[in-house]
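Hi R.,

Here's the chain you asked about this morning:
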Amino acid sequence: MTATIGLAVGFAMLVWWFTTGIILFLDGLPTGTFRRSMTGASVLAIGALFLLRSSAFDASTAGAFVAFSSAIVIWGWLEMSFLMGFIMGPQRQAYLGVRGGWRHFRQATRAIIHNELAILGTAALLALLTWQTPNPVALWTFLVLWSMRLSAKLNLFFGVPNTGEQFLPPHLAYLKTYFNKRRMNLLFPVSILGSTIALVVLVQKLLMAEGGFQITGLALVSALLALAILEHWFMVLPLPTDKLWQWGLRGTAPQASRTPDGLDAPRIVKAP
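And the predicted structure, written out as tokens:
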């Protein structure tokens, strides 16, 4: 059991670190490369959907790894579609109004709404593909990623000390105006407490699990949730987190003045 848990946790950590670095690297390349990157990612995502569907009927250790990996690839496609500017929202300009109020929140939502709807639709698709199947690991993985990402976005809006602006490429610089810098916000402790309770429940289930599939699946999802909690702590602790993905940030290059969909580069304007 210990070896199985160790393998699953190590695999989850490696996937988390490597896929984050790859996405940062590709997103830092000139915008002219984005369509090729998204085409390649789309091919991988389509393949991942087929693997996800087949693994949903495979309640084995290997099936758990395949389901987890498939969900990560699909999530990576959604992240790239956002970071490269293909699926974002109608608000693609910086905000220069009063921060922290309803108008600011509304404009911030408009900046990301299409991507959020895409995530919602993908979650529904994964739920359909894994409905009443013996292996729901892919859906668990996706839901952990989605819930913790939404929590992170809300905390960035309400305010944290470390907003991670260094990870934003030039073509998304306007998103910084939707972040707030504060020592703490009321949502952060709730996010940490809720996710930690969920992690404790998962670990308890893991320790009581029997069979390679249950142990592997719960270990993978638990490790991913623990890493997501760690990323939340990165937002408030003075740590050089960019060093974790220094190799991925090396791909950052000066960007052209136009976004990949042909829109003019964002301007700073006062919100209506």
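Confidence is low (pLDDT under 50) at residues 253-272.

Let me know if you need anything else.
M.
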